[in-house]
Amino acid sequence: MPAKTPAELAPTERRSLREILAGHECLIASSVFDPISARFAKALGSEVGVMGGSVASHTVLGAPDIVLLTASELVEQARRICRLDAVNLIVDADHGYGNALNVMRTVQELQAAGVAATCVEDSVLPREFGAGDAQGLTSIEEGVKKMKAAVLARGPGPMLVVARTNANVSEGPREAARRLLAYQETGVDALFVPYLKKREEFEIITQDLRLPIMVAGSDASIFNLTDLASHGVRVWLWGHQPFGVAAQALFEAMKAVQEGALPTELARKPTVQTMNLATDADCYDQLTQHYLK
User: Does 45 share its domain with 86?
Assistant: First the structure.
């Protein structure tokens, strides 16, 4: 059989994120943080991947989620993932890395990297001196300016802008609803609602929203895809637990080797199929046959 050409090796066609948000179902998004995790998401049939600022910080810096990551580092990690064209990648850009003008620069760079959507939130980041543990929020006025700046910076390009607030955690669901109602008038494409603990919070926050909704990091009691879809939720993300699971498995394997275990004795050894999928070995084998022989 003749080798496949690069065009024949192109990824299978999938819906755009805009098409997904315009639909009537709620999809489960995959947490992705590097090209391999994005490849796995695609193989599992996931159309949407989300790279959080937290896992980007873990992966790039080996640091906690305290906004030590720079915008350039976030963009470069997103670019590595988008190069594969494996999923519609939604990138959590936190506060946009500064004021409204910084938001514009961040949005432009992420759009150039090929991401499907960028999330911008109204949190005060990094944490201010003496602020304590409570999550600080900008004023709604500043939040509105940031969202408008993000939309302007995106321009006619294909990337979507998603407005996020963490107000439910510190101020309650009514304040979260008030902020999201203001943000949906700015021209953003969707709204991001994280950290819901009770269905009552979900109902209060979403009752007057008309844009597509993303929900992430929320309690399992709210999880019902049919019900979520009927309330305008189009994307559900459990969180970024897979990264922690992967980190634990890596630590245990390295520990076993350090303590004298033979490679053949390691638990949860990867299959050939898994490693081929991780490295896209079949594709590269065909390219080698086609261009190097």
Answer: yes
pTM of the model: 0.94
11 within a domain of the structure (yes/no) = no
CB 53 within 8 A of CB 239: no
Mean pLDDT of 53-75: 97
Q: Do residues 30 and 45 make contact, with C-beta atoms less than 8 angstroms apart?
A: no
Task: Indicate whether 7 belongs to any domain.
Answer: no
Instruction: For residue 215, give the H/E element and its range.
Output: strand 213-216
Confidence of residue 12 (pLDDT cuts 50, 70, 90): low
CB 199 within 8 A of CB 222: yes
Cα separation, 279 vs 115, in Å, equals: 21
Is 6's pLDDT higher than 70?
no
Side chain identity at residue 90, one-letter code: I
Determine how many CB atoms are found less than 10 A away from the CB of residue 63. Answer: 13
- Provide CB contacts within 8 A for 192, sequence distance 6+: 119, 121, 162, 163, 164, 165, 213, 214, 216
Q: Can you read off the two tokens belonging to residue 230?
A: 């009927």
Structure tokens of 99? Answer: 């004021």
Q: Where are the alpha helices (DSSP H) in the chain?
A: 17-21, 35-43, 53-61, 71-82, 100-113, 140-154, 167-170, 173-183, 199-206, 225-230, 241-258, 272-279, 281-291
Q: How distant, in Å, are the alpha carbons of 18, 87, 272, 277, 289 from that of 5?
A: 30, 22, 24, 19, 10
Tally of domains in the chain = 2
